[in-house]
Amino acid sequence: MTEDMFENIGLIAKYGDIQVKDCLNLLISFLLKRHLNVFVDASSADLLSHTNINVAANTEALGQNCDLIIVIGGDGTLLQAARLLAKYDVCLLGINLGRLGFLSDISPKEMEKYLGEILNGAYNSEDRLLIYAEVYRDKACLSYCNALNDIVIHRGNLSHMLTFETMIDGHFVNCQRADGLVVATPTGSTAYALSAGGPLIYPSLNALVLVTICPHTLSSRPLVIDGDSHIQITIVHDRIEQAQLNADGVLCQTLIPGDRVIIEKRQHIRLIHPEKHDHFAILRAKLDWSKSIYTHLND
Amino acid sequence: MTEDMFENIGLIAKYGDIQVKDCLNLLISFLLKRHLNVFVDASSADLLSHTNINVAANTEALGQNCDLIIVIGGDGTLLQAARLLAKYDVCLLGINLGRLGFLSDISPKEMEKYLGEILNGAYNSEDRLLIYAEVYRDKACLSYCNALNDIVIHRGNLSHMLTFETMIDGHFVNCQRADGLVVATPTGSTAYALSAGGPLIYPSLNALVLVTICPHTLSSRPLVIDGDSHIQITIVHDRIEQAQLNADGVLCQTLIPGDRVIIEKRQHIRLIHPEKHDHFAILRAKLDWSKSIYTHLND
Amino acid sequence: MTEDMFENIGLIAKYGDIQVKDCLNLLISFLLKRHLNVFVDASSADLLSHTNINVAANTEALGQNCDLIIVIGGDGTLLQAARLLAKYDVCLLGINLGRLGFLSDISPKEMEKYLGEILNGAYNSEDRLLIYAEVYRDKACLSYCNALNDIVIHRGNLSHMLTFETMIDGHFVNCQRADGLVVATPTGSTAYALSAGGPLIYPSLNALVLVTICPHTLSSRPLVIDGDSHIQITIVHDRIEQAQLNADGVLCQTLIPGDRVIIEKRQHIRLIHPEKHDHFAILRAKLDWSKSIYTHLND
Amino acid sequence: MTEDMFENIGLIAKYGDIQVKDCLNLLISFLLKRHLNVFVDASSADLLSHTNINVAANTEALGQNCDLIIVIGGDGTLLQAARLLAKYDVCLLGINLGRLGFLSDISPKEMEKYLGEILNGAYNSEDRLLIYAEVYRDKACLSYCNALNDIVIHRGNLSHMLTFETMIDGHFVNCQRADGLVVATPTGSTAYALSAGGPLIYPSLNALVLVTICPHTLSSRPLVIDGDSHIQITIVHDRIEQAQLNADGVLCQTLIPGDRVIIEKRQHIRLIHPEKHDHFAILRAKLDWSKSIYTHLND
Predict the structure, then answer these.
(1) I need a labelling partner for D277 at 20 to 30 A (CA). Which of A276, C145, C176, D161 fits?
(2) A 12-41 near C (Cβ less than 8 A)
(3) Nearest to B148 by CA among B181, B183, B187, B204
(4) pLDDT of B93-107, one tens digit each?
(5) pLDDT bucket at B19, cuts 50 / 70 / 90
(6) What fold characterizes domain C130-267?
């Protein structure tokens, strides 16, 4: 499909990875040849071989000035960029460092070919929802964070189990003892939630999944709910000193008994893919679905 | 909430269950006192103590004449009624025989109380999607069936494994060797799909879940997709004599290699519940979520 | 380690597989050069290029005359040979057709190298237990079978669930509704039991595992018990017409309500491996344990 | 069966639980009436209503002087006593506080009845194996601990994943990225290992199970090995600051990259049960195996 053309291109490269330097500069040359406006994130400024490139003060400034942001790195780098850029009306494109990512699906080798097509307007775009967590202690909002993959409540230490109560849209769901709880977006369904036993969710589905980590109750199962649900988790254990609230694997807040965590969909990012993009092809490659472990009985 | 009033009430009772007779006749007396028009399914006619009750020739006739159909029995009876009635614009209400069902959530004891409220217009209604399967051999449609819970493709005999290929919306997903595949609605996510390892899905979510039964590929995981997806399963094994296609546990068609099964959402039913209805309360009761299997370490 | 030398070598080749012919005749030449007595299974006689090779009337005759039986084919061929040969005091060696098996772990390419070492007395041997199932109807023993992988009780048709009661060493364990039950040896723990959710069991452990297939009870878990346990499964469902009893995937007996299946360890086979054999290396290769599905968060 | 008579009885009561006082003193009266020598653990001395009771300086002193130690509390209290007493030749008996435990299976109500039988020599005894972990940094043994349930290696914080390498009996098994690893005894197979997805193991089986917590590799499965195996886990991640080693849920040591944990069976305890004791009955009660979640399809 042919869509809007991009003119102002922001670039973010994985911080501290020497391998990205060549890729970044190659990309800049490629974009300059096409007479596009190029902005580079401040964190990547020291990697520049070119002179006279606009360096944005920070990622937010990129968001304000660009219509396409290209992220060079793995899924982790793109996750971080997405959280910062979700409030701007920009498109994101991920270029990996040779290892296929769920989000960064263009390899350095394919970069020029696919980018050429994309800049000609031939691309797919898809919206990915982000979730937002607010922590309330007594009646005050203590902190908040957003996540493209998941919000995780976890006991940080092994000696004490976490007990927490879940409400969805004002309805009591259950009170569980477990190592923790993952609230994942469809995007996050291929990350930590999957390790914890959750299902795969097609990226465009407007849904969230709650996966309990090491539940005491053996009949606990992952719960898939509407993406517009209002989730409230209350820490009820009387002994735990400090549980953790993490957003995309980054510590957001330590939690104490009585703390309430409100989780809701808010914001989205727009991911750009080559036209041939196929989510199932990525699943097959990353989950190695061609592998059948035992031989035919007629072997 | 106060909604439309029901005037023409159809009654279906579980076939062959002697226990339902009292419940059915009590229900009829209750409805007649309220001056409602009562129609009884032909299969329940011999249970009638009342005379002068309209007996519908079959379930379809009920669908044409009634705006509310009350089903006395368990979830199985309601599933069967739903499949037959999905093409009519009717509401369904389930009264169980003492054992809480996911669908038949009103007990005989509560029947008069809740039915009174419902007939006064105080009730919740929710739409549940049904799926529809068509089997193609060569280019001809061989047979079709609908299901409120699930469509299951399964090898009927143990000696040979089933190999099948899945496409979603025209995209190849994978080729699997397994005992079979469950394609379940949110309603069916608490039935066979759950035994096979699937997640719980909130009933109103517009989604379907594919759960592979005993997959050879250890990285197989349940896949939750949009409810409007077009699913195609092709039997590719060269040796299997006969696989089975079942709809809500009822044999619909035997399958041979090359057969294609097309599965799509089609139709819905409208379930009526008392106002206090709470899906999570039913989950807690049926899945016994209050049970924690091991003691606190400080015991 | 250096062990007993083999002198009388039996050969069994996968029936009906044209690919094995070269491998078989290469193997015979190799053995004749070492002046060993070679016996070929009757089922493989028509594959012989050599003349003057002893053809055994059947697999049992091989068992009586040989001290080492080499099986050319996959795990399925070796399973079948093992069931027939378990009552003889012979060693088994598996040569695969290019695809690594759990049991047939020598590839055609490595055949001469490893066989040379083995015939020089440099090999590992390990005993693998077999289980034995007897079916009782009323008080008569209806049939029996043995298995190196597993005994499986399974409903053959989807419409009706199987209900069965399990006793171990005279103690009632539980009564379950499910698709079936796998009773697996450690050898079988990498086969169907694994697909059904069972654990991996180290081959030499004297243990059995019971894995319920698609259990209705969500707290059902695989149960690992002593290898010398006496297991009794009774079909208790009142409606099922015919369930199936399978041994290593081969139908042994159809079951009706009231039938009792007694399962116990009986017999063993001795598997021969090259000295470098490493069960964990095979697990890593077959289960693809090097695959990590999602990228480091610092990508 | 009638076995040895007990004469010197030690008593340990759950620390800090007011509810145990009555139970402890009732028990002492019962034992004194039978003219048995009673020793009370120092931690329970302030609960005594009786005077002239021998108070042992510590749990080890109980181990030296007693042939039966009765533990009043839950499984947690008995676990702790077992770790301390494993090096003495004593029997342990658990009395719970009203909630059935896997280990503490006698309720206060049944206490006098069953204890009378047991003291008359009518009881079952069973050996339960303990495991022992040693932590090596460079070549020095940093610390060690024993466990009746499990040794758990776990990342204490969410932001960084744990990478570790497992060797069994000198053979490399795999290198995993995960939240952690549970090495459980059969006794521990009903505790944390079960929450993490492990199988049930019959208590008397000489086996251990390794269960990976939230593994990245989707084909990871619990691994059941011989109880006499030598397990070595090496922390290989280059970024993790501090992982945790826990024994029965108690922090034993913080771990850094390069640390090696050696785990082996060592010691056992002898558990005393009433003659009617049945492990499967406890499993049924605690795992709620009578619960079937969905209704018969003929409902």
Answers:
(1) C176
(2) 14
(3) B187
(4) 999 998 899 999 899
(5) confident
(6) Tumour Suppressor Smad4 (2.60.200)
